[in-house]
Amino acid sequence: MSAETVSPQSISTFAEASVGGYLDDLAAKLPAPGGGAVAALHAAQGAALVAMVARYTTRAKDAAHRETIDRIIAAADAARTRSLALADADAAAFTAVGAAYKLPKDTAEQATARAAAVTTALLEAARVPAAVVAEADEVLSLAADLLPIGNPNVITDIGAAAGAARAAATASQLNIVINVVSLADGEGAEFAGALRTIEQIVARADALHTEVVTAVTTR
Fold first, then answer.
1. CA atoms within 13 A on the CB side of 15
2. Closest Cα partner for 168 from 44, 16, 25, 17?
3. pLDDT of 75-132, one tens digit each?
């Protein structure tokens, strides 16, 4: 994807964008939004689904779990807000990478400065999806906490939240790797933990999905 100038018609922030406008920009020949924003929005959607199910679990019969439900609602709402902000951060980080690669390198000093700027930009561009992984991990943990006590009438939405968290993690994996692969040996070591977490998220999300399917089909 080239580092072209973003069209002035593109969205300003993801929190303000319409779904149609976002999809138009995603489909357009624009450098952003791209896969990084999609990953962050997967996490945001997963968080929103968890919050919705939790809000449906505030019936009189759910009173014994009210403290846990209130905690899940607050945490899910916060994760949704952070994930939306990360979608914006991803677009900014990608733009910074493109700007760094455009710096002049005609002299030794310029080449050194450009190399340092590229490294800084690539690290930041990898840190954003790593942060999305953390949000996906949080969303999946909240979904797992909610599954045993959530309103059974909307239990499939817990499974959908887990799927969204999984998608956020695996899409982020691609965005971490594409940035880290361009770094010098050892410069991407800080992302090893996030990459391990992605593997765990995939396994946990698949297990939760199976639990939901079993719960639905054995009623």
1. 9
2. 44
3. 999 999 999 999 999 989 999 999 999 999 999 999 999 999 999 999 999 999 999 9
Cα 207 to Cα 28, 88, 143, 190, 210: the distances in Å are 36, 31, 12, 28, 5
In sequence order, what are the residues at sequence separation of 6 or more whose Cβ sits closer than 8 angstroms to the Cβ of residue 95?
Answer: 3, 6, 31, 32
Full-model pTM: 0.91
For 29, phi and psi rounded to 5 degrees? -80, 70
pLDDT digits (tens, 9 = 90+) for 154-199: 999 999 999 999 999 999 999 999 999 988 888 899 999 999 999 9
How long is the chain?
Answer: 219
